[in-house]
Amino acid sequence: MTESLEYWDALAALEWQVELGVDEAILDVPVDRFDLPAPQPAPKPASAPVTQAAPVQPAAPAADTVAIARQLAESAGSLDVLRATMEGFEHCDLKRGARNFVFCDGHPTARVMVIGEAPGREEDQQGKPFVGRAGQLLDKMFAAIGLDRRAEGAGGLYITNMLPWRPPQNRDPKPEELAMMQPFTRRHVELAEPDVVVLMGNHACAGLLGRKGITRMRGTWEDVLGKPAMPMFHPAYLLRNPAAKRDAWADLLEIKARLT
Ligand code: URA
Asked: Based on CB atoms within 10 Å of each CB, which residue in 30, 145, 231, 235 is the most buried?
């Protein structure tokens, strides 16, 4: 923003951004992008003939980011290494817009591992999954069957998401984002070794089962890496559709029965 910009102009610019969906400042200090040095043209290769047009180079094939993710994920031998590997993964653009990397909450000794979609605003701010309104409902739901993310072992709950970075304006994850991060989530399940996986909502089902349709899928056991996996309505959906809590309760009882 230039210094000559008047108060009302600045306010109008801010209102315009809010209308576009901007809901928070990413940096503590504003960056005046009009004042950044202009990008320098790339230097010509010294050996290029001056009079003759250079042959057109075939475009380099786009890096197969899913294969890179798979290789990195498979080489992670512990949860700490997986966390560090994911945090350093530069191929997912969501990383650039997120405030924090969100890996997990709870204790990996828990028998139940919940897999959600992606961090929302509060999760992005705190660096922990499911800490907003949906997370509070999730805690109540699992407390009703004796599970608590603050506990270790049999009474515990281990929580993660398909994506570790918040999508802008909480938009839905894109299929390519799910595909890119899926190898990490699979490895996460392998390393945490839960007895039961809970797939919270359509995006967790799409990411790990390759299918959507939570209304039909919920309540029926699936298989994720040899572990029983229960698709459930996402707590954010339950907040909007309280009548579906009845189904969610039936699914929670299924999970409880599986643990005994
Ligand atoms: N919704 C999710 O799926 N995950 C979170 O961490 C928060 C909301």
From this structure: 231
∠ CA 164-76-183, nearest 5°, is 50
From 114, 123, 171, give the residue whose CB has the most ligand 1 atoms within 8 Å, as the site to mutate.
123
Closest CA to 1 of 13, 18, 15: 13
Taking the CA of residue 159 as reference, the ligand 1 atom at the shortest distance is 6
Confidence of residue 44 (pLDDT cuts 50, 70, 90): very low
Are 98 and 119 in contact by the 8 Å Cβ rule? The answer is: yes
Looking at domain 65-259, which of 3.40.470.10, 3.40.350.10, 2.40.10.120, 2.60.40.230 is its CATH number?
Answer: 3.40.470.10
pLDDT band at 58 (very low <50, low <70, confident <90, very high): very low
Q: Kindly tell me the burial class for residue 126, based on how many C-beta atoms sit within 10 Å of its own C-beta (0-12, 13-18, 19 or more).
A: middle
**Distance in Å, CA 74 to ligand 1 centroid:** 25
Does the pLDDT of residue 42 top 50, yes or no?
no
Nearest to 188 by CA among 82, 95, 100, 109: 82
Atom of ligand 1 nearest to the CA of 235: 1
- Residue ranges of the domains in the chain? 65-259
Residues in contact with ligand 1 (CB, 6 Å cut-off): 116-120, 123, 129-130, 132, 134-135, 161, 200, 236
Indicate yes or no: pTM above 0.85: no
